[in-house]
Amino acid sequence: MRKGLYGNIIVVNLKHNFPAPCASAIGIFLLTLLLFDVTALQAGEAAKPIEFLLCWVGVMFLTPVFLPEQNKDIRDAICSKKVDYLKVCMLRVLYSVAATAVFVSLFVGIMRARECDVNASVLFGGIATALFLGAVGFAAAGISQNTTIGYMAAFAYYLASYGMKGKLGKFYLFSMTAGNTADKGWLFAAATLLIGMTFVIMKLRQKL
Amino acid sequence: MLFLKECKKVICSLTFVVYAVTVVVMYVTQFTDVLDAPVLPPRQGLDYYGSMAKEVPEILMPAAAEGLVSEYLSDSYAAYPFGIYRQVKLAESDKAKMADIIEELTGISPEELNEFEEYEAGGYSQVMDENGNPTVEYREAVLPEINFPTDMSYDHFKELMARVDKIIGGGSKYSETYIVENFSRIPMTYEDALAEYEELMQDDSIAEGYIRLFCDYLGIVLAIMPIFVCVALWQMDKKAQAEQLIYSRKVSTVKLVGTRYLALVVSLVLPVLITFFHALAGICMLYPDKDIALGGAIGLAALWLLPSILIVAGVGTLISELLSPLFAILVQGVWWYMTLEMNQLTGSITKWTLILRHNTLGEGWLWDSEYGDFVWNRTAYLILSAAAVGITMFVYEKKRKGAYYAQGTLWKHHSRKSKA
Predict the structure, then answer these.
(1) Are B177 and B218 contained in the same domain?
(2) Taking the model in full, what pTM does it have?
(3) Which residues of B make CB contacts under 8 Å with A?
(4) Among B227, B231, B94, B67, which Cα is nearest to B169's?
(5) What residues make up the domain containing B287?
(6) Considering only CA atoms, which of B53, B61, B73 is closest in space to residue B122?
(7) pLDDT of the residue at B124
(8) Residues 6+ apart with CB under 8 A from B158
(9) Smallest CA–CA separation between A202 and chain B, in Å?
(10) Can you tell me the ipTM of this complex?
(11) Contact flag A152-B341 (C-beta cutoff 8 Å)
């Protein structure tokens, strides 16, 4: 059976551009299990490992989406190809989002098996937090065309959440740990908006 | 001149701009509030003046016993071996030993302990207030009834605690280093608070109190953000595909790597210096009648913050050259997270903690008790950063000779041998 053009693109990208972010995400996943004793935790405590450490899997997957073409010469060469470069990046975003969701779901599944007080809203909140932090890195990397800036922006936002707490309002990263799961929809919407906005900016830049 | 060229490269980079903005934002949002008004003496007649650690066996022994029961029931012991936090889970044989010690301390038999199902952890936790803002709430732990033996001597108790610490693997709350801070806190009286105020107001310690707080906040940023500037600098050659050209230059490796590292550190210090002198000016204006010891304040800030910049830049440089820049970010990120998340706001300065915290203007007594570890810690990081730069020079020299050639990373290393 033929996989089709986009199927081939996904396979090639999974082979060449997915292993390094995936290895980093596995590292974060294992570290979270190692540092936090995820056994029989109550709701607020159960959200802590997810919001404070596991959310970095989103950064590991989404921030390096533009990394393979960070070199301008390579980017120019890729942009001259028949397949739109941004469509390739969109495919990378799709499998990165899926991988983020899988990692968070797996972790929440482990917590549930260990009798932690986790439910669907914690799962959604975890995915939204990871995607939002990843989207911050993704947007910064895409707009600056520099992946290091992407990681830096994600760390800066995380630091801001640490220091400014309530001042970030609905975009406070650690709200579930503080007992509020309602604001995670905002994070999810903001993540979607950031990713979409980055593609629009890059499309406009291509046209100039 | 090579040094100025490298400085220009760093300062004109986007990563440096983001770094400088982060330093300034951290300073403005977290520290500058304390410069709004001078510290006032405590008022008489208040219910609470804070707390302080003091070795009082009558308070320490029952509190430590309660803490031990709580950790036994949660099957998780907090420990800081080598200054890095970890949660320890005991093997069955160690659990049995721990239960025996608890029985001696509390009168609760191992069977009763293992059958107790109502346990709930206590302590401070973050909750939302009525306005939806995060706030901190205290909750008492639910534990079995503890009857601490009245005839237990303090020396025997200390022996038991040493055994407990050994079972956990060292660096636990029950170790000699941490036990007083964790289990023997007493409420401060008006006189204690006044004495602390008067100590802070002394000419030679007033700036020290403020600079400790300044370093506490800036130290968090400086333990992570320099890595990005460092990585970006070492990536520039690769991006410009100028690595081979630079390898073939006449300039020695020691001069090249040393100058680049020095330029990086000097550039990273600049935003810190600006905020530092702003803070110092603010302190002088707050207390115009005081003869503030500026030399001591500058020395303290340099000893606290410079090793942080040096070690992050040193480790970043080494890992970028040896493995990959992104791996350097990952390693530093994990290190930063582990020390930040597991640190207490004050009172957790150890020999190996990367981020040092003393998040208060006062508690000079606590600072004095930790000062030895502080000096040890900063000296160790100075030496380690020098070692990291030395190893980088060695690796870079090998690369110049072709030993590790191939994308500049160790993973793809192969030696090229010429038949000629």
Answers:
(1) no
(2) 0.80
(3) 14-15, 18-19, 22, 25-26, 29-30, 74-76, 85-87, 89, 121, 125-128, 132-135, 217, 220-221, 224-225, 228, 231-232, 235, 239, 325-326, 329-330, 333-334, 337-338, 340-341
(4) B94
(5) 2-40+196-400
(6) B73
(7) 67
(8) B176
(9) 19
(10) 0.88
(11) no
